[in-house]
Design brief:
The protein is 66% helix and 0% strand. The chain is mostly helical and 94 residues long. It is elongated and about 70 Å long. The termini are far apart.
């Protein structure tokens, strides 16, 4: 049979076994070499921004108006949400 790493690759694709007369041309490139350095830097930048946004969202969800379904009038939600966001920004500057 084929090499164990190749067998593991096919099992991950859902192929249970290969017969002895099966010939497959493989052009496997390791995942680490597929990503270009620019892609890694861009992904790092995006994940850094996303993490900071998620931290802000978690801080804002302390307020019930932002953490649960809003059941009042639609036109009052935006001013109240903006007030809470401005309150958060004010607390950052203190």
């Amino acid at each position: 049979h084929k090499d164990d790493t190749i067998g593991y690759y096919y099992k991950s694709l859902g192929i249970m076994y290969l017969s002895d007369n099966t010939e497959i041309m493989l052009d496997l490139v390791p995942f680490e070499k597929q990503e270009v350095l620019e892609d890694k830097e861009l992904n790092h930048l995006i994940s850094t921004i996303r993490i900071s946004i998620e931290h802000v969202n978690s801080q804002l969800k302390i307020f019930r108006i932002l953490s649960e379904r809003y059941r009042n009038c639609k036109h009052t939600f935006i001013p109240r949400a903006l007030f809470l966001c401005s309150l958060y920004n004010f607390c950052l500057n203190i």
